[in-house]
Design a protein that fits this description.
Radius of gyration: 16 Å
Strand content: 15-25%
Largest sheet: 6 strands, mixed
Structural class: alpha/beta
Number of helices: 5
Shape: globular
Number of strands: 10
Helix content: 25-40%
Strand order of the largest sheet: 2-7-1-8-9-10
Distance between the termini: 23 Å
Length: about 210
């Protein structure tokens, strides 16, 4: 059986949410393992496209990318059109050559704030990487090294402010937790939809980040 194949099968049954696209968000604190999990889930979804929110955020707009996302990505996709966006180069501090995203049956969007209020209406499913902020940030700092310590100081303050004003976790359709071997996820019903329920699943091991 494919890694995460049962979760992938579940996601394939969802109704399209953004034009013809079933848009699946992977949210969580910085350093919680979103990129690795999204890559593994995309592979289980026959190499579904993945949009990384790091490509839309900038040094000056860590969380103020909603308009750019709507204009360049979700707007065109909702009309069944090809999305075109210019990814941000965090080293050059400028936008790079444009990339395209063709409408696909399933598409992942991963990054801190992927489950934000303004984006939820076009999401088919919201997955939250359920690792506490302090542990996630420690992993991220360890991954990036001391050279980015000042950036992380600013980031953690901005992330705290963002989730305080616009939390994603309460609205998640599933909480994803990394285990020593693989993942487990807890299916749940967001507050407006009624009572919670749970299903636990596991797949193969994943790297720590």
């Amino acid at each position: 059986m494919n890694d995460l194949s049962r979760l992938a099968a579940r996601l394939r049954t969802l109704a399209p949410s953004c034009g013809p696209v079933r848009l699946i968000a992977v949210d969580g604190h910085a350093g919680s393992g979103k990129s690795t999990f999204a890559a593994r889930l995309a592979a289980a979804l026959d190499d579904a496209p993945v949009l990384h929110l790091d490509d839309l955020a900038t040094h000056e707009e860590l969380f103020d990318w909603t308009g750019r996302l709507r204009e360049q990505v979700t707007g065109p996709l909702s009309r069944g059109e090809t999305a075109r966006y210019a990814p941000y180069d965090w080293t050059a501090r400028d936008f790079g050559p444009p990339r395209t995203l063709n409408p696909a049956p399933l598409m992942l969007i991963e990054g801190v704030g992927a489950g934000r209020r303004a984006l939820r209406p076009v999401l088919a499913h919201l997955l939250w990487m359920d690792l506490p902020a302090a542990e996630s940030w420690e992993r991220g700092r360890r991954r990036d090294g001391p050279a980015l310590s000042t950036f992380w100081d600013g980031w953690t303050a901005a992330e705290t402010a963002h989730f305080s004003a616009d939390p994603s976790r309460p609205w998640a359709d599933a909480l994803v937790r990394q285990l020593p071997v693989g993942y487990e996820w807890l299916e749940r019903t967001p507050p407006a939809a009624g009572m919670n329920h749970s299903v636990t699943q596991r797949d193969h091991p994943a790297p720590p980040y």
